[in-house]
Amino acid sequence: MSNNHGDPAETERLLGFGPERKKTRRELCAVLFTAVLIVSAVIGIVSIWLSLSHADSYEKRNVILMISDGFGPASETFARNYKQHVDKLDYNYFTSLDEILVGSSRTRSSDSLVTDSAAGATAFACALKTYNGAIGVNPEKVPCGTVLESAKHFGFATGLVVTSRITHATPATFSAHVISRDMESDIATQQIGDYPLGRQVDLMIGGGRCFFLPNSTSESCRVDERDLVKESKERGFNYFSSRKEFDNLEPGKDKYDICNTYHMSYEIDRDSSQEPSLKEMSEKALKFLEYETADSDKGFFLMIEGSRIVKKYVDEHPGTVMISVSDHETGGLSLARQDSGNPEYLWYPEPVSLVKNSSYILSKELSKYWNNDREDYIKDIVRDGLGIDDVEDHDLSWLNQPRSQLEYEYYLANITNYKARLGWATHGHSSVDVNLYAYGQGSEALRGNHENIEIGDFIVEYLNLDLDYITEKLIRHVIKYTFHQATDSTHFYKRDHHHCNHK
Ligand SMILES: *[C@@H]1O[C@H](CO)[C@@H](O)[C@H](O)[C@H]1NC(C)=O
Ligand SMILES: *[C@@H]1O[C@H](CO)[C@@H](O)[C@H](O)[C@H]1NC(C)=O
Ligand SMILES: *[C@@H]1O[C@H](CO)[C@@H](O)[C@H](O)[C@H]1NC(C)=O
User: Fold this and answer.
1) Which of 157, 191, 227, 404 has its CA 20 to 30 A from that of 150?
2) Same domain, 179 and 234
3) What keywords would UniProt list here (predicted)?
4) Beta strand pairing status for 448-451 and 101-106?
5) Which residue segment(s) compose the domain that 93 sits in?
């Protein structure tokens, strides 16, 4: 490992007092969370049910933790209703998730009833409640050992698979420790192993390449000149950036990293000749991790953001437990939208089923085209993209005015939402309990209503991990630094003073 233990600059980055500024656009979940997005999530549901008895206890253990960012109970119902509509299924149809519902997860963070993705995922990663924005640090901004790091320490293989940026809050909480989710340059630096623990993630697949490229290149969104692609290669990790390179990755040959530029495309917009699907990435990851651990008595820990496709894998590998849970609900989605006094007890999946592109993609088109025949162009966009032949006059004249891309995006989404009678109470997150799904050995322990941190506890217990040990390792290093150099984090320094005296 090429850690420079005790290097003040190193630790500065770890704590997040480094060069990172609020540079990146903050994630706007609401933007992503159009009805269109939900449709794409439905497509990922593969319904396979093979009933196996899990009476035996398997000692070689794997954990697959799937975090469906922003999915509340209404989204799950939406998915079922939608699938029933499209596939003409009976009322008593069960989705593959319905089959494995075990309970619910309570999502609040330490400083708000409404969590963000950073605190929401840190609850799973460190098994503790923390403040919104925290990446792998506790409410006092002290780094906390994660299930991924502890698993790595005990000889498990580790992986992160996402369609967002790999430096985005959810995957970041497992593999980095910074005081703010916006510090994505620092997160990337830690993810390639340049922090006190060294490289902890055996494989990372997802978007976010720009945070790994030096700021002197046009594609970069880093705050400094470091070339993390190069540095990661020097650490023995392969890097891929195209569909072809992804396809060519073979277990035993490569260790591998990042693909794509920013967030990867929504499933509905994805060009399969350019980008692998989440399903393909997950399958590839499972293949690699299985290969890596073939001769070991330890299995692996894999976090997949946003999917539900691996039940079959659990059936075939009985030491595996799969947990699927959201970090929080988004949008206050309601499956009905009664505006007036007259009861309207219905919602229509049909308008949603006609959508061909995300409103994000369509809004980009609308922002670009200002020729004289713009009206016709708008009609084309609405017809081809949303499946609506007769755009209303007031919609047409609204869309014909110059607006921001975001305004177009919301407006387009609302056209379909209104026709479907879907309501959204917020553009952000909400605090409702989310559904908890689990399948495989030991999953009975997750029955009932749980705090999100108990899902972290469950993983610790299942893999027999020790998070405190990792926390101590992280803190020891940090304290050394705060002794050397006074920073604005004096409360942090004081709080952990006694740790130093022990040594
Ligand atoms: C690139 O990073 C260097 C520090 O490594 C900094 O001095 C410079 O201002 C950065 N340039 C841009 C365009 O951000
Ligand atoms: C919308 O989706 C269709 C079908 O996948 C595709 O052919 C078309 O190029 C997409 N439109 C935009 C604007 O991306
Ligand atoms: C959505 O569309 C409906 C029908 O045109 C309209 O009444 C409503 O104000 C719109 N809502 C938003 C938030 O734009």
Assistant:
1) 227
2) yes
3) Hydrolase, Magnesium, Membrane, Metal-binding, Phosphoprotein, Transmembrane, Transmembrane helix, Zinc
4) parallel
5) 8-17+32-53+64-332+428-483
The CATH code of the domain that includes 284 is 3.40.720.10
Residues 6+ apart with CB under 8 A from 92: none
Q: Maximum Cα–Cα distance for the chain, whole Å?
A: 75
Task: Tell me how many domains the chain contains.
Answer: 2
Measured in degrees and rounded to the nearest 5, phi and psi for residue 297 equal -85, 0
Ligand 2 first shell, C-beta below 6 A: 356-357, 361, 365, 385
- What number of other Cβ atoms are within 10 A of residue 190's Cβ? 26
Domain end position, chosen among 380, 396, 421? 421
Give the predicted TM-score (pTM) of the model. Answer: 0.84
- DSSP class of residue 264 equals P
Distance CA 367, CA 369 (A): 6
Could you tell me if residue 495 is inside a domain?
no
pLDDT at 274: 82
Please indicate if the annotation marks 7 as binding a ligand: no
Q: How far is the CA of 386 from the centre of ligand 2 (A)?
A: 10
Q: Do 163 and 253 reside in the same domain of the chain?
A: yes
Query: Which amino acid, 253?
Result: K
Write down the mean pLDDT value for the chain.
82
Last residue of a domain, one of 421, 441, 456: 421
Question: Is the residue at 348 inside a domain?
Answer: no
Are residue 132 and residue 101 in the same domain, yes or no? yes
Confirm or reject: Cβ of 418 under 6 Å from ligand 3. Answer: yes
The helix (H) or strand (E) run that includes residue 121 is helix 117-126
Q: 242 and 268: one domain?
A: yes
- The lowest-confidence range among 29-43, 220-234, 329-343, 413-427 is 29-43
Look at residue 319 and tell me if it is in a domain: yes
Contact by Cβ (8 Å): 354, 86: no
Residue nearest to atom 11 of ligand 2 (CA): 357
pLDDT greater than 70 at residue 200: yes
Query: Structure tokens of 212?
Result: 């790994």
Residues 250 and 190 placed together within one structural domain of the fold: yes
Ligand 1: centre distance to CA 222 (Å): 8
- pLDDT single digits (tens) 324-334: 999 999 999 99
pLDDT at 34: 35
Q: Does one domain contain both 134 and 251?
A: yes
Residues 190, 244, single domain; the answer is yes
**pLDDT digits 0-9 by tens, 9-29:** 443 334 433 333 333 333 333
214 Cβ closer than 6 Å to some ligand 1 atom:
no
pLDDT at 256: 55
Confidence of residue 263 (pLDDT cuts 50, 70, 90): low
8 A C-beta contact, residue 228 and residue 209: no
Q: How far is the CA of 17 from the centre of ligand 1 (A)?
A: 16
The structure tokens listed for 180 are: 């703010």
Identify whether residues 317 and 387 lie together within a single domain. Answer: no
- Active-site residue, 117 included: yes
Domain-located, residue 36? yes
Q: Is 414 in the pocket of ligand 3 (CB under 6 A)?
A: yes
